[in-house]
Design brief:
The complex is a heterodimer.
Chain A: E1 5-11, E2 15-24, E3 27-37, H1 47-62, E4 67-68, E5 71-72, E6 84-89, E7 96-101, H2 104-117, E8 121-127, H3 134-144, E9 148-151, H4 161-173, E10 186-189, H5 196-203, E11 208-211, H6 225-242, H7 246-252, E12 258-259, H8 260-275, E13 279-284, E14 289-295, E15 298-304, H9 313-320, H10 322-326, H11 335-347, H12 356-380, E16 414-418, H13 420-423, H14 428-439, E17 443-450, H15 455-462, H16 467-485, E18 486-494, E19 496-497, E20 504-511, E21 517-523, E22 527-530, E23 536-543, E24 547-548, E25 557-562, E26 567-571, H17 583-597
Parallel strand pairs in A: 1-6, 6-12, 7-8, 7-9, 9-10, 10-11, 13-16, 16-17, 18-26
Antiparallel strand pairs in A: 1-2, 2-3, 4-5, 13-14, 14-15, 17-18, 19-24, 20-21, 20-23, 22-26, 23-25
Chain B: E1 3-4, E2 9-22, E3 28-29, E4 36-37, E5 42-48, E6 52-55, H1 57-61, H2 68-71, E7 79-80, E8 85-88, E9 99-101, E10 106-111, E11 118-122, E12 125-130, E13 135-141, E14 145-156, E15 159-161, E16 164-171, E17 193-195, H3 202-211, E18 215-221, H4 226-230, E19 238-239, E20 247-254, H5 261-269, E21 274-278, E22 281-282, E23 291-295, E24 314-315, E25 319-322, E26 331-336, E27 342-343, E28 349-350, E29 352-357, E30 360-365, E31 369-374
Parallel strand pairs in B: 2-31, 16-17, 17-18, 18-20
Antiparallel strand pairs in B: 1-24, 2-14, 3-5, 4-13, 5-12, 6-11, 7-10, 8-9, 10-11, 13-14, 14-23, 15-20, 16-21, 19-22, 21-23, 25-26, 25-31, 26-29, 27-28, 29-30
Classes of the chains: A alpha/beta, B mainly beta.
Chain lengths: ~600, ~375
């Protein structure tokens, strides 16, 4: 079926965002967007109110009738209505889960990966070997009141007693769901298949038990898909049914409502697969920071639940330490004054930086929030732990073991940022700098931001399963992703290795689209920007003999790179980036890096 | 007239305050509609299920899990006393018997032949909910609690720690600019809610704690001093469950900031009254602000109509407070709300308000303004 128009909404905890996608001259484009406050809480207590308000804004802008009273007109007829309507949701705090496994670093971690991949917030990972006594675990389950529990443990055919013991703890805790007192807590069992009967007997009628395939049928293999699907089903069937207005919203949509991060994750996964690239995506919000990655074809998502730019800004300060935040601030400030200012942002989270000084502080904190979230992500996105590897004599000096991080910055092709502080930075140069300083890409890496955080809506669009719609919807999602969703910032080119101060680390030559050629010898610790559009540019990159730009130490590369609104950024700084300790040199270094990319106004004064 | 929605803090001389007083699980409501309540009156009671103990019988007796059922001397649901024998092996020829004794007074909840352990539960824990403030039972929530209603003066703070508290209120400073210093506190303030002006230091707050002051209401406090009180760094503003003798309500923010004049004047008007306060704060969607409830006696209720929250947002003529640097803490009147986006010094493009502050007209992002809701 040809889709002429698509309406998609994302119901966030504070704002409901609607977009209209239309087929114009044979290609799908984002045409209008609207937003309105989310109406899940009192006095409205009906999510559809906010959806209608956001859609009404689109109607006004597009001068097109979409609503007939309180209903979405579908399919499109005579330029009115839309062909399909879809939505994601993270309202009411999103999907909050607790997961359990027998061994924390094995089935516990697999269960966590499944829950995160499905778009939930993991409140706690309980395991037989997590060091807590049974009564402590029971108290924790009672206190947390999750929306759903995923119970796993044991390989198929292995011992049953440990996982049954977890079920007994669960039973003793008698967990109550967070929303609504009148339904049973959904529990998914995805462990040793031989224990299914005992699990049924143990948990009995107390919870709403659903049994699916083992998440870790053998040690060497994870099987996350069935659990992820089950989580999505139960999210729709149980959790969403309890949230005000969702029954109505579900009756409107042409595809199941997905949890927002789940939709983003599946979009990133699809892009990586289609284009055969490695991707890291980040969404930094007020309360949490989500990171998605695809390396070696494996998708991972982490949520740093308490690293964000407003509600949890003080936690960034606590976890990063004041010194790490201060190192990015290009002026001297009293430490107590700084903590009070950050504290005031936490208790007044909706404020914006009016002065340049406030912007410096906010972006300094953003760098640390992103850096810490990425560290957490790298630690979690690993190969499977507990797997025995066959070794030969040639591996004798290779100290690698199971559980290594999959994230390899030299292999990273595309880094996408989204969330207020990245998407709405006054200058795109600031977004690029924050991404580079926090993620520290190595070699050649394209940078982009999601201008209006459209990825959730595109993710659910790409996931439509109805046969007659699926292919067209996927095409639409990809077309809009490339043409309207991403703002291409440019490419970061960063050689890695050890060099002396003042040494040249890279000789670069670019054949620019206008026919000119640009040469630059990049010095250690230098940041250099070449303005260039998002068009193919032939690059010849020759690193110093101790430096690597992707092909090995001293090995030159000839390749195609792309500019963008910021251009090509050559980064000669160390990995990790070192910032001088003494105040004078630190301020001088920050100033020179800012000026190199024209990051802030008046940095000369 | 243009409007911008920016939630503000309430400073109301006369309003209806309703409080939901509910049990965490179902139980018994002990009051009826129309009952007049004092803050300490119990309105509902219940028993929380006791803590759970798991006893690994199979391990203790050195037998297989499946054999546990054969050695148990008690069954599901039985009550047992601490030290009572609950399982015993047959031994050999009647000798060398091993046994397991109950570690607690409680009941047997389940016996498992798979894991070889039993689940025991302590005696139930009684829970009571009180009325929190002087008022009348307006509504009964069957088996859960009541809704208490009170005609009162009502003030919200921006941030607090410590939960519910109550006591006679005493203003200890000359004006809203004076810091609440340690020398102003003495033994007579035990159990009272004391009000200071611009700031309280950590040292003074600690003195309040040691004196057993029930609560402190103040303009500002240092963020970094919270760690000393709480024992951890406060990363997200979700508070209320701290076990503190002295609840703290900050009305303006972190730092040394004089208390808003309306807040201070209203508190001063009720100096000496019995008030209920709650430091619980939750800054997330579904925000909860700390509060001071000053119930009014019949003869104190003003003739003016009860203030009802309009939540209409900031309009021309609104009284607002700036809540971010560089004009943090200053108050003024909105002169106009231009609709076009304007570029700030930071180059951020925002919707702004023109605000008259001390005879100057300042351009300030609307989202950096807080409406002062007053009556």
């Amino acid at each position: 079926m040809e889709l002429k128009s698509i309406l998609a909404t994302d119901c966030g905890s504070t704002t409901t965002k609607a977009i209209l996608i239309q087929k114009i001259d044979g290609e799908y484009r984002l045409t209008y967007r609207g937003e309105a406050p989310t109406t899940v809480e009192a006095p409205f207590e009906d999510v559809t109110r906010g959806v209608l308000n956001a859609v009404m804004e689109i109607e006004e802008l597009a001068e097109r009738k979409i609503l007939d009273g309180d209903e979405i007109m579908s399919p499109q007829k005579n330029g009115e209505g839309v062909d399909i309507y879809i939505s994601t949701s993270s309202a009411g705090g999103g999907l909050q889960m607790m997961v359990a496994g027998v061994v924390k670093s094995m089935s516990g971690e697999s269960a966590e990966r499944a829950a995160l991949g499905a778009g939930s917030i993991v409140m706690d990972v309980m395991a037989s070997n997590d060091g807590r006594l049974p009564h402590e675990k029971i108290k924790r389950i009672r206190d947390l009141r999750p929306d759903m529990i995923l119970l796993s443990g044991g390989i198929d055919g292995g011992t049953v007693s440990h996982v049954v013991e977890l079920a007994e703890i669960l039973h003793a805790a008698n967990p109550q769901p967070r929303l609504g007192q009148n339904y049973k807590l959904p529990v998914i069992y995805a462990g040793n298949k031989n224990a299914q009967d005992q699990i049924r007997t143990t948990l009995g009628d107390m919870v709403d038990l659903d049994i699916t395939e083992n998440i870790r049928p053998v040690l060497e293999r994870e099987n996350l898909e069935p659990s992820r699907d089950k989580i999505h089903d139960l999210f729709m069937e149980h959790v969403m049914q309890q949230a005000p207005g969702y029954k109505k919203l579900m009756s409107w949509t042409d595809a199941p409502i997905m949890p927002t991060p789940g939709a983003v994750g599946s979009l990133i996964e699809m892009i990586a697969e289609k284009e055969k690239i490695t991707v890291v995506g980040v969404d930094i919000g007020g309360a949490t920071t989500d990171i998605f990655s695809v390396f070696e074809g494996k998708f991972n998502r982490t949520v740093s639940a308490n690293l964000g730019m407003s509600y949890s800004i003080c936690n960034v300060l606590a976890e990063a330490g004041l010194d790490n935040v201060l190192r990015w601030v290009p002026f001297d400030i009293d430490r107590k004054e700084l903590t009070n200012r950050i504290g005031n942002k936490m208790i007044r989270p909706t404020t914006v930086p009016q002065s340049l000084e406030e912007l410096f502080l906010e972006q300094a904190i953003a760098r640390e929030a992103l850096r810490l979230s990425f560290i957490q992500h790298k630690e979690f996105a690993t190969s499977l732990k507990g797997v025995q590897k066959e070794r030969t004599i040639s591996d004798a000096f290779d100290q690698t073991s199971s559980g290594e991080s999959l994230v390899n910055m030299m292999d990273l092709d595309l880094l996408v940022g989204s969330g207020g502080v990245l998407s709405h930075a006054p200058r795109r140069e600031q977004s690029a700098r924050m991404l580079i300083d926090a993620f520290m890409p190595e070699g050649i890496t394209q940078l982009a931001v999601d201008s209006i955080f459209m990825m959730p809506q595109l993710g659910v669009l790409a996931n439509i399963e109805k046969e007659d719609l699926a292919e067209e919807a996927r095409t639409a999602a990809l077309e809009v992703f490339h043409k309207d969703c991403l703002i291409r910032l440019g490419t970061c080119i960063a050689p890695v290795g050890k060099a002396k101060d003042g040494a040249t680390v890279l000789a670069a030559e670019f054949a620019m689209p206008d026919g000119s050629t640009i040469h630059h010898n990049l010095k250690k610790n230098e940041l250099y920007r070449i303005e260039a559009p998002y068009e193919p540019i032939q690059a010849k990159l020759t690193p110093d003999k101790k430096m690597n730009i992707g092909a090995g130490k001293g090995e030159p590369i000839e390749t195609t790179v792309y500019g963008g609104v910021v251009g090509l950024i050559l980064d000669g700084r160390d990995r990790p980036i070192t910032i001088p300790n003494d105040s004078e040199s630190r301020l001088a270094a920050l100033k020179s890096w800012s000026e190199a990319v024209n990051e802030y106004p008046n940095t000369n004064s | 007239m243009a409007h911008a929605y920016t939630p503000g803090l309430k400073v109301l001389h006369h309003t209806i305050v309703k409080k939901n007083r509910r049990l965490p699980i179902k139980g018994k409501v002990t009051k009826n509609i129309g009952d007049i309540l004092n803050p300490n009156d119990i309105v509902a009671t219940t028993d929380l299920p006791g803590n759970v103990q798991m006893v690994k019988v199979a391990n203790l007796l050195n037998i297989g899990p499946a054999d546990v059922l054969d050695v148990m001397m008690v069954s599901d649901g039985d009550s047992v006393k601490k030290g009572e024998m609950i399982a015993q092996t047959e031994g050999m020829f009647g000798f060398f018997k091993s046994d397991v004794k109950s570690p607690i007074d409680g009941t047997i909840e389940s016996i498992s032949g798979v894991t070889g352990q039993i689940v025991m539960r302590d005696a139930p824990i009684p829970v009571e909910v009180d009325a929190y403030m002087t008022g009348v039972v307006k509504e009964i929530i069957p088996e859960e609690g009541v809704i208490v209603e009170s005609e009162a003066a009502f003030i919200q703070g921006i941030f607090g720690i410590g939960g519910e508290s109550r006591g006679n209120m005493e203003i200890l400073v000359k004006d809203r600019e004076q810091e609440l210093t340690a020398d102003l506190l003495n033994e007579s303030h035990k159990g009272k809610i004391v009000v200071g002006g611009s700031f309280i230091s950590l040292e003074t707050y600690k003195k309040a704690l040691s004196l057993g002051v029930a609560g402190v209401v103040i303009g500002g406090f240092n963020y970094y001093d919270l760690e000393d009180i709480l024992g951890y760094t406060l990363g997200v503003a979700i508070t209320g469950s701290e076990d503190l003798v002295t609840s703290l309500i900050v009305t303006e923010g972190y730092g040394n900031i004089r208390m808003g004049s309306r807040t201070y004047d209203l508190l001063k008007e009720h100096d000496g009254k019995f008030v209920s306060i709650n430091g619980a704060t939750q800054i997330r969607a579904g925000v909860i602000r700390p509060e001071i409830v000053i119930p009014l006696k019949d003869d104190e209720i003003p003739k003016t109509p009860i203030h009802e929250s309009e939540e209409k947002g900031i309009g021309e003529g609104s009284l607002v407070r700036v809540i971010r640097a560089p004009y943090f803490g200053r108050m003024g009147l909105v002169k106009s709300l231009p609709s076009a986006l304007q570029k700030m010094e930071s180059e951020t493009m925002v919707r702004v308000a023109e605000v008259e502050i001390d005879d100057d007209i300042l351009i300030i992002p609307r989202s950096n303004l807080e409406m002062v809701e007053t009556d």
